[in-house]
Structure formats: structure tokens, C-alpha cells
């Protein structure tokens, strides 16, 4: 156990650790006197103290030990820290190994730089207190807890030489996302993928409570880790010297185990799922900080979580802080100019081996575009609108299959889904690759194997977390999900969108591939699952985020879906939300028209319109089912009011509805007015909650005339047609809406209303018989 | 092992199981010939086959065995099934024990009733295919997976005589929420609370894949369960006779263990956390269904998940279905009239002992109102608006402390929070109760213990799931959460809101206490946590749900928060969302004014207005920080434009903004126009994303004049005042917005704009110095 570190090396590593701790405390507290060259005075201390100390010394300890491991074995390693509140520690280490100054030259490696480093922390126009996009070496925002381990596995997939050291906080370990993330080891292939080394940091406390995993005893905890499929290595202590030795030995053993697992898999083939090592590190919260303040124990309690000495009204607190800072002996760590001493600095790896400068943690640097087959080749051919039916997602599946095939060698594309790839009709992909599976395989299994590139697990959290980790390290992916259940990862989407937004303002962060969602099995076709599976609100959730990073597409048919998907796979730094059904539906546009339509984002469908230069009404729609109902309503209208003039408008790219000042895709007012008119009634059939259309269009000149129908939480297990009826989105209702709003048809309204109710009576019988639902819509030759 | 069941009893239980299975298959398939009195023909089969068979036989097996256990030991037990797709099984069992007919008299216990029972399933205007509010005995919607075990623990809290049998599907076990729910046993007190008996049903497959837990080997699985703190009892097999015996023995053992644990805790006191039993039941998916269809294995594979025989184009499939149905020997199970045979029916418990008629599963039947202290007694006293500061949530904390105290004997109130009760300044509650904690306790711990009624765990999923289970079984609760992270349970909120909406239409579902959220540590005061902690979008998410079940409150100060909280604790069947800050802020209303203001939902603040009969501008606000900025803007305006006439409007109840046709709280148009005028500019400062105000008001006459400021994803770690500046919500911007919109001040705009920019320049210096942020606002005597 004492073999790994010489006494000299241990002493130096301890000094390096002290330096990182000193810089961490300095960031939290100091605005001046960064090297303590003068006695500490109140005016050296920031007026507002913001930051998290408790987790930081442990993160710093692991950093210096991982540095030793990297240097000793020339490892390619990145560092993901779940307890991301420990931002000062990561900033400190990046500074110590020089990458911080490379990214931010004003933060020089001298006294001035130190002072700037300290002042900028948790300061207006400075850096956040958490690990954030501004932190070199990070792919993981430290604000919302629970996603570290999923990110770590995502980063490790298809990176055979990479080891992802992932610190799991014992607080975040209580979250749902983290609790299931341990099972990611059933999806990691030791031959093809890299390794994840989870390090559960038991510092024992959250902000106000002990943690569960620190209070269940060692046996239960190691049972739990074995149950999750890991071999735990326990390191425990509060004497730095002893912990240095045992931790170094533990890391050597873990690395040896990883190497043995990989060697076996790579030389003898992947046969069984290995039992990967993991480390349990139990050290005091706020270790090396003040033992007591005002008579209360700080170190080793939840009181060390944030700022251990929070008030300086008591002058002895200044002395307490000074003593704490001087306990790290800064004069031994920095030279007279304030530069970190060379004999310590050499302990860090160099160049890209530094965890804070590893290109995997700035994935855009490694990003290669996908090789994409020409999507025109997958188009549904048709002799005219409404002449053929197709399942949009099945058509997309063939395209995705060949995207997968074209990039098998590049190993940079994966498909993610919570047990739904086949249900969502993308299973053509399984013709060219398996679903990844490292757990046991039985005879009945189909398309499962260790080399699969389709990631299926019944956890939206894992799908999202893995995909984020995969994208952030410079690869590509596609996530298909039931529309209603994508809300499970609403908060993860928030954090990813915020990450992208922040990166937009950081020049050294290179663009990464967009996060592409396909939401299907959508609200209008939950025939047997009913109310619990009906929720189109994720669109609303997404459009709350910065316009620069979000895009929403509602392709009305398969060819439009192809065009949109191709576009999304080429895009960078966005979250693209695509909503499309999987059921057989009428098709409207040939592929060339689809491309033109999708490029414009919205447009008039002349073939479905008549007299469109001076329409009585604009029938607008967004979404596949609303498009069908709108077109059927148009047929009813021309039958009932032969001389009616109707303009049909379809919207694919929902963002065109916003003013161009609000979203880069927003139509300028002139173009919007050309399409939607400035004074004609607009009956708008929308896939989601109707008020979203109002929210997007309220600044438009004709907004007052826009009348929207959409989902309003009605219906459950029933026929698709009954669903649109119950939500007033059906063709009869849309036709009636139009008639009611056309002034010259005022005399018709009463008769049309009566006719509507008679139709609904028939409809009630009709759905009672549970028959076929969608009358056909074919003939587009206007006779009027 | 063969001691528990006599051969005769085993045979009868097997017959009971066959009856439940027969009725389950009948629901999925048959629209006629319910007793198979004629040879099965295609017209007896539903034209559209919707449902889930795979999990159902296992659920039915457990039901009959739990029935035996209940009868043998006179147990008070409810049944929560995670694999809620197995709806037909629960409906079948409720029908067999008579409670279904009691709730739905048309579903008689004869041939006609059987036919109706079969036809209504997954049929328009019938019942959903999942377990749903319509299912007697259920408190758990079976659509979105992952929440069964958290619901089970919530139901067990404070119900010492109740045992909650909770079936965890091996599919749902992969979700994050379920993966962390196992740890709920660290929060269950065996003396005070009831018991949860988790039964992990390993049927091996999801919709398209094997499950993780079925493919990790028995040792890892039992290690995992021991690591979670349970003692697993494994039951495994595919021979019904053997499984009957081993399952009966396993349940007896589990019950004995539960009773022993409870007896020890109740007689000798709670000393150590017990190792509760749990059962692992491994049986084939779709057990007793077709072995093969079209040459493909069905039973024991994922292909049994939904409808094993899905198409009847092949006429032999009708024979296959008939053989399957007849394998249950319906003629032995039902008499000539179609009634379930008495000698089998007597196996079920009676009255409230039936799991489908247990009042805990219709919690409103048991609901007792909270004893509430008079909230006036906790009011902040003040000599006028803006004369005193208070921390709103701390004031609320004192009230909640006494709510807790007043209901300690009734044991029907708990507070829930993800490690944030103290951070959210509700810690006065800890003066009268501890935080519940059954894991190890150390000397440093404070306010932790086995009798606590504050539920803290770092998992929003567990807080939400426990609270839902607690409410659905007839108790009361309050959930405080950081505003940004409540999105973690956005999907759980969806399902609960849908449950409440559905219950509104089910007469026998009695009203339950509302689910009360307090969102604090909100977007405007994330001074050190920054961007990741800033997200007010949950309001948008909530208002998408049915108006009949959602309420949103933004109290501007502590006294309003008291009034709102009191109201919410008295309300029923809603989700109440309260957003309020925790920081010291100026107070505006004395308690009587606060009550009047909150009852109205919105109103003119005359004391802050002048010339309000004919205002130049309406300055509206919703939320505590926007209210402060609005009032400060008013002070700037009257200084800069002494003769300006300003009306100040504050909105507490956001739902008043909607038309009364859209929400029961909506102001009628007359009252809305009285407050907001029909033609004056309205500058609206809003807590959340600004477009929500447009979405709520777009039908109002003066909507065109409403100009909204709110959060737009700007700012990170910075001062509170800088946050409002960066999002254009600051007092200077609001004042400028007003001046720009008042026609008679057209000549002032240029000077005001210049002044604004000069102010902002000073502001930049100001925040650079990181000083105090919020200038005081006190003097409300208008001089004009």
C-alpha cells in the first residue's frame, strides 16, 4: 500500500494539493493580498462571499492524484465532477497547470493574475461558482445534480483510449438520474469503448443533511456497488499522508483492473460483462478547512458546504481565515512573483494530457461531420397530394439506417431511445447494427449485442445523459422518444440549452453537433395508451430557451421529415425538436416540394388553395394530424360553399412565426403578412397547446384574426378521429370556424352550425362502432 | 415450503387466477360471446385490439395470493402496480371481488355485465388500458413508469396498520425515479408508519428488449437489493403449481418479517433501521398465453408485451385465441348466468379488506381537514408600505411550524423538500419536529430522527412521489423546492394533474388535499448559483394543464404569502403553485389588505397610484422582485415627470388574467377592463418568461397595449440588481418603457432615454463594486 508513492513524491503532491486548496479558498474569499504578503485585513476580503468549499478539497485531492496517474501511464483522461459546486477547485487546477492562462490570458501566472483569478470568481461579469462552460476541461455543468455518470459514459462510448474519471457526489447519488446511471456499465463495450472510473466521494453531507450512502454502513454500500456490477475499492481517512498513500494505491489498482479488462476484451474478444472497478473515497467534508467557527464544528459537517466563515463582523474571524489560508503555506507554493513553483508545476501532465486541456472536453475540436446519404433517395413517391399513405418515421428509419451504415467506420453516430426504437418504427436501423447490450443474452434475443450502436434502456434520463456526453465530446446522435415522456428530461434539456447558450459567448468552445429529438407516438395517436400518454407541451418548454439555440419542426409528412432530419443532422450547437407521427398517414409533398417547403419553413400550399390572391379565409396548420384535418376541412368547405376562396398555409418550422427580431428563423413582417394576410381570418390547426401560436404571433399585424385550435387535455383511450373531435380540432369544427369568420357568409352560420351538430351526432354513433377513422382526402381539383 | 397451501386451497386459488386471466384476455379481445358458449368466431373479436397482456398474468397471480394473505391475517392492504399497463388484470380482480359492480352498476355480475366489461376496455367512452383513476383500488396511474415505489412509501407513511404491496416492474426499475425509490426505506419508521412490501416482478422483458435486472444474474441482483437495504426472497418458476406453493410461503415469510420488525419497533422502541423483506418474482412474460404464434415464441419473450395474437387475417388465429381462452376453463369458473362461482368468490376478502375497495385507495374518504392556526398571527407588522423588510418564506415558516404543531396528533401533515427546507428558510418547522431519518445518526447531526415529519432527500422525484402517495391516501402536505429544479418532476406533475382532472368526472372519487408547491430560491435571487439555477418556466408548464385543477400564485410580500398558503392548505383537488422569494425584501401590505388583495387575485394599489381614475400608464406587476422594481420605477417617474398619473396594479393570482371562460379564477372582461383600462399603456413586470402574460391576456380588449418585461435567460452569477438590469426588468427600464408609451410625453422620450443610458453607465460601475443592490423605496406620499 505504501509502494506507489515515494516520500518525496507524496510531499510534492501534498504541496500541489495545498496549492489547489489555497487557490480555492482565495477565490471564495479574497479580493486583494492574494499571496498573503501582508497580514490579512478586512478590506482584502470580498464584501459578498459566494461559493462552495465543502466538496472542493476532495476534488482537488483527486485531481492531483489523477495527474500522477496520467503522467505515470501517459493516460488520455478527462475529469467529470458531479459535485459541480466545487467550481473553485477545477478553476484552481486549470490555473495551476497553465491551461487557464492559455484560455484567459489576463489571468496571468503571477501576482496580478492571482488577484484577477480570485476577484472574478462569483463576481459580476466574472465566472460562476460552479463548474461551467467557462471552465477549461469541463463538459459538465455543476448546477443541477445527477447527470455526471451518464455524461461520463456518453463520453467514453467509442473512445477506446479514453478514461473518464467521474466523481459522483454522495448528495447527487440520491437523485433518480444518478441512481440508475450506475447501470450504464451494461452498455459499455470494453473492446470498443473507453473506460469510466466512478469515484463515489462520500464526504457525508449535503447542504443541510447527511447523505444516505454515508449512513448505511460499509457492507450495504459495497453490496450496492457490487449489485450495480462494480468492484468497489474503499479509501477512507482524514490523515492526508495516509490517504495519499492509500488513494495512490487504489488508483493504481483500478487502472490495472481497467487495463486487464480491456486487454482481455481486445485480445480475446468480448465474452462476459466485466466487473469494472470503482472507488469509494470517504474523507471529511471541508477537509483542511476550519475545524470550528463560533464553537460549532465545521469540518466534517454540513456546515462546511458553502462558506465556512461567512461573517467578518467578529474581527477574530479575519484571524481565523488568515490562519486557514496560511495553513497551506503559500510561501512554499508560489515564488516571489506569484508564479506557481516549477518543482511542483512539473507534477502536472503537459499539453493535451492535462485534463483541463484534453480535446475530448472541448468536443467541437474533434468533431467530424457525418457522412450523410442523399435523403432524396428515401422519398415517398406519389402521383399527387393525398394519393398515398406512409408511416413517416418508418421512412425516416430507412434514412437513419444508411446514416448509421455510412458512419459505422467513423464510429461517431448513435441512436438513443427508451425501449422505443422499434415502437417508433425506426427499426430499419437494426438491419445494420445491434442494440448495445453487455448483460446476459438468451436464445430468444434479437438484434442485441456488445457492438450495437442503438442505445436502448427504459430511462429517458440515461438516453439524454449519454447523448449529451457523446455530443459534448464531439460525436453525433439522434434521440427518439414518446412525445409525452420527453418531459421526464425537461430539466436536463434546460441545462443543455443553457450550456449551449453560454458556449456561444466563449470563443474557444468549438461548435458541437446539435441535440436532435424526434418526438413521436404523439398526442393525437395514443389510441390505446390514452390520457397519460398525451402531452405536446415539450414544445412550449423548448421555446422558452434562447432563440439562438432552439429549433422546432413539425413536418406534415414523410418527405418533409426526411428534409428536416437531414438538416438537423448537419446543424451545430442547437437543440432541434422534431415532432412527427408514426402511423400510416396521407402524404402531401413530393421530395422537391418538401425541400423547398422546409427551407422556407412555412408557405402557401397553392395546390390546396383557390382564389388565394384574395382569400376569404386562411386555413393554417402545423403538425401532421392538424394538416390532415385542415385539408379535409377545405374539402368540406368547397363542397358546402362552392364559391369560397381558401388559402392553405402549412408551417413546418414553428420558429418562423416569431418576429425576426425574436428568433433568427422568424419571418420578417412583410413576408408574414404576405402569407397570413393583414386582415383575413386565419383558422390555425396546431399540433400542441393552442395558446403557443398566440404567444409566437402576438406581435403580428393580423394576430387579432388568428383563431387557433389544438390540444386541450381532452380524450383518453379512443379512436384517433374521436381525439380530434374532443379537442375541437376536427375537420367539421375547422370548417365551421372558417364559415363563422367569413363576413359574407354571415347568413350561412346558422345552417352550418346545425349541420355541424348533426354531423357530430352521426360521429358519436360512428366512433361507438369503433370503425376506421380517417376518411380519405384525395381530389384537389377545385371546381369553383 | 408446501405447508402454507392445502392442495384444495391451491386448486381454488389457481382457478381464481384462471378467472382473472380469462377476464383479462376477454377484455383485450372479445366484444361478444363472453362465456365462450358458442365456438369463437371472428365477429366476436374486437375490430381493434388494444391492451397489454405480458405483465397481466403475473399481476393476477400476485393478486390472488395477496387476497389469501389478507384473508388469513385480516390485513389492511392496498396494491400498487408499477407495470400499470396491466390494467385488465386490476379491472378483472375488482370485478371478481364485486367492487367493480358496486362502482359501476351497469357492469353486472352476469353474462351481460361480462360483455359490457369486455367491450368497454380500450374503447371510446370506455376505460383506458392502463390502471387509471377509473380503476377501483388504485392510487397509481399506470401510464408513465417509475413512480410506484415512491407512491407506495407515501401511502405507508403514518398508516401504521397498512401494508402496501407494490409491484415493481423490471422495466420501470430502469427509470431514474424507481432506481432511487428503493432508498425510501431509510425514511420509514416501523413504529409509526405502515409497511411497504416491494415485489420486483422479473418477467424479463420490456416492449422490445430484455430488462437489465433480469440479466445480471441472481447474485448481483440480490446484492443490489441488499445494498438497497432489503432482504430479498426469491420466487422463481414457470410451473403454476410449484409457484403457487413457493409464492404463498414467500408471502407468509415476508409478512412474518414485517410483523416482527413492527413488533420490535413498537414494543422495544425504534433503535436500528430494519432490513425489510422484499420479493423477487421471476415468471415468464405473458405466462399462460400462447407459446407460439406464426412460428415465433411468444410466452417468455417481449412479443407477449401487448396483444400476442394481433391479426386475425389468418383464420387459424381465431382457433388459437379460442384455445387460449378455453385453457382457463371458463365453464368451471362462471355459472350458467355468467356469475363468478361462489366457492371461488369466497376466496376474496370482503368489504373494505378488498384491495379494490380499501378506503386508503380513495383517500378523500379518509380526509380530515387540517387544524390551521389563524395566519393573521404571523403577519409582518408595518407602519406603511415599504417601511420594513422581511424574508417571506421565513415568515411562512413560522406559520408552517404551527400548522405542523397543531396536527402532530392527527399525524396527517408532512413537509417535503430536496435538502432545502433550511435553505428555503422554513426551518422554524424543525422547532416542533425532526427531519425523518432512519439511517445512521452521528453526534454532529441536528434535528434528525425516526419520528420526523420533514421529509428531506436530495431527490425531487422522491419528494414528489412520496407527497403524491401521501395525498392520494387522504393526508396533507407541502413541497418547497428551488424554482429551477422543480422541472425535474415536470412529468410527474403532468401525471398528477391528469389524475386529478380525470377524478373530477368520477363521482365515487372523493376530493383529496391539493398538491402545494412553494417555489423559492427563485430566478431573481440566484446570486451565487447563476444561470443553471435560473428558470421560472414551471409556471408555463403548469398552466398548460386543465384550468379546473391548476392555480398559480405570486404573492408580492410575506403577508400575501401567508394568505395564499392558508388558502392552498384548505383547498382540494388542485395543484397550487406558489412562487415567493426567501431574501429580505420590502413589505407592502398589512395583513388585512393582503387578505383582501389575495382574495381578489389582482387589484389596484391605490396607495402607490395617483390620478388613477385617468392614468397615463398602468404599471402592472406579478412576483416579488418585479413588484419592487415597479414601485421603484413609479418613484422615478414621479420624480422625473411630476405631473404623471400612474396606476399601479399587482397580480397575485395569475389565473385572473385569463378570460373567465378559460379559467374559473379569470376576471370577467368588465372587471379586467376596469383594472387594466381599455386604452392606456400597460407596462407589466413579470416574474417569469414575459410571453406567458401575452398568452394569458391575448383575448383582452387592451391586450395590444400590454408591454411585458420578464426573464429572458440573461445573467448568471451576479448581483440581484444586475440580474434585473440584464433582463430589462429594472426600475429604470420600466420607467423608460412608461415614458415611451405615454403620448403626451413624446417630447420627453429622447431626454429620458439619454438619462436611462447614463444611469446604466453608473450602474455598471456600481455593480462592479459589488455593493448593496436594492435602493430603498419608502415615501408613498404623492406630491403632484
Automatic annotation (TrEMBL), chains A, B:
Gene Ontology biological-process entries: carbohydrate metabolic process
Cofactors (names): thiamine diphosphate
InterPro entries assigned: Phosphoketolase, THDP-binding, Transketo_C/PFOR_II, Xul5P/Fru6P_PKetolase, Xul5P/Fru6P_PKetolase_C, Xul5P/Fru6P_PKetolase_CS, Xul5P/Fru6P_PKetolase_N, Xul5P/Fru6P_PKetolase_ThDP_BS
Entry protein name: Probable phosphoketolase
Similarity comment: Belongs to the XFP family.
Key words, A-Z: Lyase, Thiamine pyrophosphate
Pfam family, any one: XFP_C
EC code(s) of this entry: 4.1.2.-
Molecular functions per Gene Ontology: aldehyde-lyase activity
Amino acid at each position: 500500500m505504501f509502494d506507489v508513492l515515494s516520500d518525496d513524491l507524496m510531499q510534492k503532491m501534498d504541496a500541489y494539493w495545498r496549492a489547489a486548496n489555497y487557490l480555492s479558498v482565495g477565490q471564495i474569499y479574497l479580493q486583494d493580498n492574494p499571496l498573503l504578503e501582508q497580514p490579512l485585513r478586512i478590506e482584502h476580503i470580498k464584501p459578498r462571499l459566494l461559493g462552495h468549499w465543502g466538496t472542493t478539497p476532495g476534488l482537488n485531492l483527486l485531481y492531483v492524484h489523477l495527474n500522477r496517474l496520467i503522467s505515470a501511464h501517459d493516460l488520455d483522461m478527462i475529469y467529470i465532477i458531479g459535485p459541480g459546486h466545487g467550481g473553485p477547485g477545477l478553476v484552481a487546477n486549470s490555473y495551476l497547470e497553465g491551461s487557464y492562462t492559455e484560455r484567459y490570458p489576463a489571468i496571468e501566472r503571477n501576482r496580478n493574475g492571482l488577484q484577477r483569478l480570485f476577484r472574478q470568481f462569483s463576481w459580476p461579469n466574472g465566472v460562476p461558482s460552479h463548474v461551467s462552460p467557462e471552465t477549461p476541461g469541463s463538459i459538465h455543468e455543476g448546477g443541477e445534480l445527477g447527470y455526471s455518470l451518464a455524461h461520463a459514459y456518453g463520453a467514453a462510448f467509442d473512445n477506446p483510449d479514453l478514461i473518464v474519471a467521474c466523481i459522483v457526489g454522495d448528495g447527487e447519488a440520491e437523485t433518480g438520474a444518478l441512481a440508475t446511471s450506475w447501470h450504464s456499465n451494461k452498455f459499455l463495450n470494453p473492446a470498443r469503448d473507453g473506460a469510466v472510473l466512478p469515484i463515489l466521494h462520500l464526504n457525508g453531507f449535503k447542504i443541510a443533511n447527511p447523505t444516505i450512502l454515508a449512513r448505511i454502513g460499509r457492507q450495504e454500500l459495497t453490496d450496492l456497488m457490487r449489485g450495480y456490477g462494480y468492484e468497489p475499492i474503499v479509501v477512507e481517512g482524514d490523515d492526508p499522508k495516509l490517504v495519499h498513500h492509500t488513494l495512490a494505491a487504489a488508483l493504481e489498482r483500478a487502472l490495472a483492473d481497467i487495463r486487464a479488462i480491456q486487454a482481455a476484451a481486445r485480445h480475446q474478444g468480448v465474452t462476459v460483462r466485466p466487473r469494472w472497478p470503482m472507488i469509494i473515497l470517504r474523507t471529511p467534508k471541508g477537509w483542511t478547512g476550519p475545524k470550528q467557527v463560533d464553537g460549532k464544528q465545521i469540518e466534517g459537517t454540513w456546515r462546511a458546504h458553502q462558506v465556512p466563515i461567512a461573517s467578518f463582523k467578529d474581527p477574530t474571524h479575519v484571524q481565523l481565515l488568515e490562519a486557514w489560508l496560511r495553513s497551506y503555506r503559500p510561501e512554499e507554493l508560489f515564488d516571489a512573483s506569484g508564479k506557481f513553483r516549477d518543482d511542483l508545476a512539473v507534477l502536472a501532465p503537459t499539453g493535451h494530457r492535462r485534463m483541463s486541456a484534453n480535446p475530448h472536453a472541448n468536443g467541437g475540436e474533434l468533431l467530424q461531420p457525418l457522412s450523410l446519404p442523399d435523403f432524396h433517395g428515401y422519398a415517398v413517391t406519389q402521383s399527387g397530394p393525398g394519393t398515398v399513405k406512409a408511416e413517416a418515421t418508418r421512412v425516416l428509419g430507412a434514412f437513419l439506417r444508411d446514416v448509421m451504415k455510412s458512419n459505422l467506420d467513423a464510429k461517431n453516430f448513435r441512436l438513443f431511445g427508451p425501449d422505443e426504437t422499434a415502437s417508433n418504427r425506426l427499426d430499419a436501423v437494426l438491419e445494420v447494427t445491434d442494440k448495445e447490450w453487455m448483460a446476459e443474452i438468451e436464445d430468444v434475443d434479437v438484434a442485441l449485442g456488445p457492438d450495437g450502436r442503438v442505445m436502448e434502456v427504459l430511462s429517458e434520463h440515461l438516453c439524454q445523459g449519454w447523448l449529451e456526453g457523446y455530443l459534448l465530446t464531439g460525436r453525433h446522435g439522434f434521440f427518439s422518444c414518446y412525445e409525452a415522456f420527453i418531459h421526464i428530461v425537461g430539466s436536463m434539456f434546460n441545462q443543455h440549452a443553457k450550456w449551449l447558450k453560454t458556449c456561444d459567448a466563449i470563443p474557444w468552445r468549438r461548435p458541437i453537433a446539435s441535440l436532435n429529438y424526434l418526438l413521436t407516438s404523439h398526442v393525437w395517436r395514443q389510441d390505446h395508451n390514452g390520457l397519460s400518454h398525451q402531452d405536446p407541451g415539450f414544445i412550449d418548454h423548448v421555446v422558452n430557451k434562447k432563440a439562438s439555440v432552439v429549433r422546432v419542426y413539425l413536418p406534415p409528412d414523410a418527405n418533409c421529415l426526411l428534409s428536416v432530419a437531414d438538416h438537423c443532422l448537419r446543424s451545430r450547437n442547437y437543440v432541434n425538436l422534431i415532432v412527427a407521427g408514426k402511423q400510416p398517414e396521407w402524404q402531401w409533398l413530393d421530395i422537391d416540394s418538401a425541400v423547398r417547403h422546409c427551407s422556407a419553413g412555412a408557405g402557401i400550399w397553392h395546390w390546396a388553395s383557390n382564389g388565394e390572391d384574395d382569400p376569404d379565409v386562411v386555413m393554417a396548420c402545423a403538425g401532421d394530424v392538424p394538416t390532415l384535418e385542415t385539408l379535409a376541412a377545405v374539402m368540406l368547405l368547397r363542397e358546402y360553399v362552392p364559391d369560397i376562396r381558401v388559402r392553405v398555409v402549412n408551417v413546418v418550422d414553428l420558429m418562423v412565426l416569431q418576429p425576426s427580431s425574436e428568433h433568427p428563423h422568424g419571418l420578417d413582417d412583410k413576408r408574414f403578412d404576405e402569407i397570413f394576410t393583414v386582415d383575413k381570418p386565419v383558422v390555425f390547426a396546431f399540433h400542441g397547446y393552442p395558446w403557443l401560436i398566440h404567444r409566437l404571433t402576438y406581435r403580428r399585424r393580423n394576430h387579432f384574426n388568428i383563431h387557433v385550435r389544438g390540444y386541450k387535455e381532452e380524450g383518453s383511450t379512443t379512436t384517433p378521429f374521436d381525439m380530434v373531435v374532443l379537442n375541437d380540432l376536427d375537420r367539421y369544427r375547422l370548417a365551421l370556424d372558417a364559415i363563422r369568420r367569413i363576413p359574407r357568409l354571415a347568413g350561412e352560420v346558422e345552417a352550418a352550425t346545425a349541420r355541424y351538430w348533426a354531423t357530430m351526432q352521426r360521429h358519436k354513433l360512428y366512433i361507438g362502432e369503433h370503425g376506421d377513422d380517417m376518411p380519405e382526402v384525395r381530389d384537389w381539383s377545385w371546381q369553383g
